[in-house]
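About this split. The held-out portion is used to measure sequence recovery: a designer receives only the structure tokens and must propose an amino acid at every position. Recovery is the fraction of positions where the proposal matches the reference. Here is one held-out target exactly as it appears in the evaluation file.
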């Protein structure tokens, strides 16, 4: 209706009166109708409403999410004294759901919402210390309304967190294995939700935390969580965290769901580069890969599916090791819980796409089954599952040869050059401003060797984010 002029509607109403045998009820009826029509055309077509302000805190950042009736239009202005971020949202009517939201998580102090005129809403975010920010829209997805996400990041905390993860690599010199346990979903992304409103993100976090506690009782194992609370982590970041830890094993823990309320059982999944092992595995991979869309990831953070370089990088022995560990995991879980499948399944899970780390995804059971939902919530089941996972990890490492000790490496370095083994390739992610020459120089190798190792021709170009195999020639 907004494309039709008001005069046209008034003319049509007058014409209807002329051809009608019913007299006009009151002299002001025509004007009343015109005012009503004008209000409908001028207000309802553009009005937006803010329905909620929510937030989640991580050790290095705070995510603030604004829920709207439709996609929001905004502009920003950052001030530095005092530290705060102001966000003006236009064409917003209705009642403000909250005036002040205290956060006080060491990153954000408060979030304030105040109307500066009848159609403009100002969101003021008071910061604890200087921080960077990213603002991006999230489209309507499943039961999520159109949203505006505001990520406040403390770079100093990010650097400290990364440095702490990289410190774990020192344990490798002491014959210690590094395990990273990844509780799926979190924050804005609840994962599967049972009929009793149990959220996957809560169940798997409890299981993951118990698993890490058990693994850390083993003197030759150090275990770490990707997330330490209820907040969202993009799938690619989970992989990067495992890399920074120098992980020998990565396990992502989830809970499944189905259209049927009777389906039950645990299942284990590994990466596949050639398509899923079954239609069910393909559907599950798609559901888990949608985590970024639900939780909210800026467009530039989305990783495409495996590119040609990454396919070349994925070593067959890494996949074989993953399948071997998954087989042991199935045996241990089968001791106390029904299996959905008695063999490891494979599909293209984004969270498992690391070429150098043995990795698997565990679907603990089905939250969509009311009986299994209660079981998944129980302390006994969570303890049993954590015990099974820890036992499988211990068995797997016992069956795998330990990395060379410093003493063995010293003996190896004194052997004749002909008997020396070429160093294993490592993964390098291309950063902004890097060239093949600068990368080769960093690792003491040559450009031709880097090209040959990655199957690159002389005309091939590298781009930011590309993953290259390199060998340090020191």
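Reference sequence for scoring:
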């Amino acid at each position: 209706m907004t494309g039709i002029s008001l005069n046209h509607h008034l003319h049509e109403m007058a014409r209807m009166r002329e051809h009608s045998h019913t007299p006009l009820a009151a002299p002001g009826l025509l004007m009343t109708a015109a005012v009503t029509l004008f209000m409908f055309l001028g207000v309802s077509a553009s009005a937006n409403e803010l329905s909620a302000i929510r937030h989640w805190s991580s050790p290095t950042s705070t995510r603030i999410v604004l829920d709207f009736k439709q996609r929001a239009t905004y502009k920003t202005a950052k001030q530095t004294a005092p530290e705060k971020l102001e966000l003006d949202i236009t064409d917003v009517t209705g009642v403000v759901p909250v005036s002040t939201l205290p956060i006080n998580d060491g990153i954000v102090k408060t979030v304030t919402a105040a109307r500066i005129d009848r159609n403009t809403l100002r969101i003021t975010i008071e910061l604890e210390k200087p921080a960077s920010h990213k603002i991006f829209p999230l489209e309507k997805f499943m039961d999520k309304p159109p949203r505006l996400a505001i990520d406040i990041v403390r770079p100093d905390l990010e650097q400290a967190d990364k440095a702490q993860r990289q410190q774990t690599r020192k344990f490798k010199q002491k014959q210690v294995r590094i395990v990273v346990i990844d509780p799926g979903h979190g924050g804005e992304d609840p994962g599967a939700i049972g009929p009793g409103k149990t959220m996957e993100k809560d169940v798997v976090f409890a299981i993951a935390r118990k698993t890490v506690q058990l693994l850390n009782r083993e003197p030759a194992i150090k275990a770490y969580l990707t997330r330490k609370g209820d907040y969202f982590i993009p799938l690619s970041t989970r992989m990067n965290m495992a890399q920074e830890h120098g992980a020998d094993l990565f396990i992502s823990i989830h809970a499944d769901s189905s259209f049927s309320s009777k389906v039950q059982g645990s299942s284990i999944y590994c990466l596949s580069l050639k398509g899923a092992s079954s239609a069910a595995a393909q559907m599950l991979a798609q559901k888990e890969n949608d985590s970024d869309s639900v939780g909210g990831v800026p467009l530039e953070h989305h990783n495409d599916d495996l590119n040609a370089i990454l396919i070349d990088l994925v070593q067959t022995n890494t996949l074989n090791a993953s399948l071997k560990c998954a087989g042991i995991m199935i045996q241990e879980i089968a001791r106390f819980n029904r299996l959905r499948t008695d063999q490891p399944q494979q599909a293209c899970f984004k969270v498992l796409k690391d070429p150098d780390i043995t990795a698997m995804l565990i679907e603990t059971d089905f939250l969509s089954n009311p009986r299994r939902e209660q079981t998944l919530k129980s302390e006994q089941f969570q303890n049993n599952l954590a015990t099974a996972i820890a036992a499988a990890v211990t068995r797997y490492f016992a069956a795998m040869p330990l990395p060379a000790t410093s003493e063995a490496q010293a003996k190896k370095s004194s052997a004749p050059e002909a008997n020396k083994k070429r160093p294993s390739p490592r993964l390098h992610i291309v950063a902004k401003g890097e060239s093949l020459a600068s990368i080769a120089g960093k690792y003491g190798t040559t450009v031709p060797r880097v090209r040959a190792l990655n199957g690159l021709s002389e005309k091939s170009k590298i781009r930011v984010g590309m993953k290259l195999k390199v060998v340090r020639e020191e």
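Annotator remark: The CA atoms of residues 175 and 220 lie 7 Å apart.
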